[in-house]
Amino acid sequence: MKRSPPGSAGLNSSDGYAANIWHTDQTYMQSPPDMTMLRALVSCKAGGDTLWANTAVAYMDLPGPLKILADNLWGIHSSTFDYAQVFGKDKDNKDRDEKWLQTVRPTVVEAEHPVVRVHPETGERTLLVGSYLQRFVGLNGADSRHLMSVLQDHITEPENTVRWRWQAGDVAIWDNRATQHRAITDQGSQLRVMRRATLAGSTPVGIDGRQSRARKPEPEAQSSCPPPQLSSIRGAEDRGGSTAASECPSISAKTFH
Ligand SMILES: O=C(O)CCC(=O)C(=O)O
Ligand SMILES: [Fe+2]
């Protein structure tokens, strides 16, 4: 199984970008991170909470016909989608967003995943969609968007979420194989500074045993990436830099959402 490189990065509200659309981290990778850790360095007096949704319970609670539909779907996830372009502070500044995207994601990375993933440790079925999903295999963009919002609505039902109000020093660790999350950017001009790190991930497997596959870059190019070095997380955080070789798809400190 291919494993993605781990990474670490800082998130500073003064940069004007926030991860404020529901997503599972880095699903454009063939092997998205298994776990993400987020630590608050500077928290807000009010606002700036984070929400998580349980994608295993969401699948379990789907009505039968929707389960059958989801069981048979695969999704194409792409790094070209960037939530910050939609909800960034300066959302009309396309030039700046384009440049930012070029810097943090110079390589377009795409992967095909089963919509229903079998959790490698618990055996639960989880829904693998989120904001990097561009379309479903065999469906056009319009149909994909409708269907995606049906699934997302189930995933993000309030009963299926938890919300954390951050205090400086808090650390959250989540299973990226069974959750989605998003920031709530209601802190106004208050500073919010976070540090994050991801752990290398395993390749998702669908209910029929088929594994996710890389679409871009070509699988050969991806396989030349070095194996993950968990010990490099700390060093990268200190440098504010990347843990992966520059030609590898999961490249820069700001790509890891
Ligand atoms: O800033 C947040 O609350 C969420 C950040 C996020 O999406 C992540 O660290 O993966
Ligand atoms: Fe994220």
Characterization of this structure:
The chain has 257 residues and is α+β, with helices and mostly antiparallel strands. The chain has a single domain, classed as Clavaminate synthase-like (Double-stranded beta-helix). The chain has seven helices and 13 strands. It has a four-stranded antiparallel β-sheet, covered by helices on one side. A four-stranded antiparallel β-sheet has the order 8-4-5-13. A hairpin with a 6-residue loop joins β6 and β7. It is globular. The two termini are 22 Å apart. The C terminus is likely disordered. The protein binds 2-oxoglutaric acid (AKG) and fe (ii) ion. 2-oxoglutaric acid binds next to β2, β11 and β12. The site of 2-oxoglutaric acid has 11 residues, from β2, β11 and β12.
Relevant terms:
single chain, 257 residues, alpha+beta, Double-stranded beta-helix, 4-stranded antiparallel beta sheet, 7 helices, disordered C terminus, binds 2-oxoglutaric acid, binds fe (ii) ion
Helix-strand layout with pairing:
Elements: E1 7-12, E2 35-42, E3 50-54, H1 55-60, H2 64-71, E4 74-78, H3 83-87, H4 94-104, E5 110-114, E6 116-118, E7 125-127, E8 133-136, H5 141-155, E9 161-164, E10 171-175, E11 179-183, E12 193-199, E13 213-216, H6 219-223, H7 232-239
Antiparallel strand pairs: 1-12, 2-10, 2-12, 3-9, 3-11, 4-5, 4-8, 5-13, 6-7
2-oxoglutaric acid is lined by residues 11, 19, 25, 36, 38, 50, 181, 183, 194, 196, 257.
